[in-house]
Amino acid sequence: xxxxxAVLFANEAFYxxxxxRDEDAMDDLWSASEQIACLHPGWGPLFGREEVLSSWTAIIxxxxxxxxxxxxxxxxxxxxxxxxxxxEEIAGNFLVATNVFVREGRVWKMVHHQAGPTSxxxxxxxxxxxxxxx
Length: 134
Description:
The chain is of the alpha+beta class. It has a single domain (3-117), classed as Roll (Nuclear Transport Factor 2, Chain: A). Helices cover 28% and strands 37% of the residues.
């Protein structure tokens, strides 16, 4: 598997953890050794593992949280760091997201997630609950 494919796999695992409301999977995909951060739309910045994962736990546990579908993911790898830019579909609306990963051994771990509004719509295909990852 190429580094690009491995990063796209890690990115898909992030959206799968959310779709499955799997707190353990969400916890596992974030780096435990590097500083992490997250910018949810409309929230202030979150820093550190405890703050970031607490936010995801609250979102996952909220029965009113809508499903998120990932579309049109593109990975860019620079040595031990990579990022993915993709679209998130939430209740028929779209956000654009950047997910940053670092290599820890043979595994890519997330260190940053940011999503925000966009006026652009991706080409959408139906490939299941996590959406397509191209």
